[in-house]
Write a structure and sequence with these properties.
- The relative contact order is 0.13.
- The strands form two sheets. A seven-stranded mixed beta sheet has the order 1-7-6-5-4-2-3, sandwiched between helices.
- The protein is an alpha/beta fold.
- The protein contains 13 helices and twelve strands.
Length: 382
């Protein structure tokens, strides 16, 4: 019988220490390992860049929770994305990505990897005809999807996008950071590779930066593993250990994030100063039914736009007391972000630019009454 998600989160890669019986595996800070004679490695351990027991434990956890055979842990989400792309693509290859992708991903592809000869096109992933046309127009090797997207909260049909990619011989990569493996498992819908910024919901406590790549294909995994070792952007032992700790409570945290976000979204949509609320849990969201079909719940991210334009969004962002104005998302604490000048500043002036009247809320696991009261007093400042 297949174990449930929360059981796997707590036990996958987490066998008690064989020497002491410690229930929590120890943190291995060693950079190197004694050899039993030249080339006589103990359990394959040689040097910290290549292998580390704490990182191996996290990778086993990640693979188990995303339903993949292979997982690789990196020093950041962008390091994970860079390693993936350089492992599987070559100069002259083409990437199609969503026209509201995370600004850092777009910056990596359009400004860093373009110098290496990688080209790209940004399209609305919910428009199948536009997606197919963009794939056909280039030497597309990867289709890059975020669902829900950051920060416009668009929902895309993973299975349909996978079919469009595969029909052209391309791979589908899904950034599953917003949903987390608890709410959505893209590999089960036909995706080839899943990426995460583990800094966000997987770590969950805003204390460890990291990234991950999870997949099933053995040949592709070998190439990614080589880049992980040869380039060396690996997660450090402490970050891996903290991420493993956070991952064990992912299920219970996501339940609370989702219920709090739903309450906040419903409250916000009734406020006179609000122009629109973007949250897939709301029935009027255009992706609501699709999100219900491919997600366990609707997550903790809410985007909201204001009738008063940029000035109103800035005023609210700078007036909250429980919501902290900060980059990032997915921690136990509630955060508020002004994407146009913060997380997505790198895409200003492009077709990926975020509306200037929009705020992105990472709804935490505090008492929801306190979160709504905080938003209420902030909106009263308008």
């Amino acid at each position: 019988m297949t174990e449930g998600f929360n059981t796997r989160a707590i036990h996958a890669g987490q066998a008690p220490d064989p020497t002491t019986g410690a229930v929590i595996p120890p943190l291995y800070q060693s950079t190197t390992y004694a050899q039993d004679g030249i080339g006589g490695l103990r359990n394959g351990y040689e040097y910290g860049r290549g292998t580390n027991p704490t990182r191996d434990s996290l990778q086993a956890q990640l693979a188990a929770l995303e339903g993949g055979r292979h997982a690789f842990s990196f020093s950041s989400g962008l390091a994970a994305e860079d390693a993936l792309i350089r492992a599987l693509l070559a100069p002259g290859d083409h990437i199609v990505l969503g026209n509201d992708a995370y600004g850092g991903t777009y910056r990596l592809i359009s400004r860093v990897l373009s110098a290496w000869g990688i080209t790209n096109a940004a399209v609305d992933m919910s428009n199948t005809a536009a997606l197919e046309a963009a794939i056909a127009a280039g030497n597309t090797k990867i289709v890059w999807l975020e669902t829900p997207s950051n920060p416009m909260m668009k929902i895309s049909d993973i299975a349909a996008v996978a079919q469009a990619a595969h029909s052209a011989g391309a791979l589908l990569v899904v950034d599953n950071t917003f949903a987390s493996p608890y709410l959505q498992q893209p590999l089960a819908f036909g995706a080839d590779i899943v990426v995460h910024s583990t800094t966000k919901y997987i770590g969950g406590h805003s204390d460890a930066v990291g990234g991950a790549v999870i997949l099933n294909d053995d040949a592709a995994a070998e190439k990614i593993g080589f880049i992980q070792y040869a380039v060396g952007a690996v997660s450090a032992p402490m970050e891996a250990w903290l991420t493993t700790r956070g991952l064990k409570t992912l299920g219970v945290r996501m339940d609370r994030h989702s219920s709090n976000a739903m309450a906040v979204a419903r409250w916000l949509k009734e406020q006179p100063a609000v122009e629109s609320v973007l949250y897939p849990g709301l029935e009027e969201h255009p992706g609501h039914e699709l999100a219900k079909a491919q997600m366990k719940d609707f997550g903790g991210m809410v985007s909201v736009s204001f009738k008063g334009g940029e000035a109103a969004a800035r005023k609210v962002a700078e007036s909250t007391k429980v919501f902290t104005l900060a980059e990032s998302l997915g921690g136990v604490e509630s955060l508020m972000n002004y994407p146009s000048e913060m997380t997505h500043a790198s895409v200003k002036g492009t077709e990926l630019a975020v509306p200037e009247n929009l705020l992105r809320l990472s709804v935490g696991i505090e008492d929801v009454e306190d979160l709504i009261a905080d938003l209420d007093q902030a909106l009263k400042q308008l």
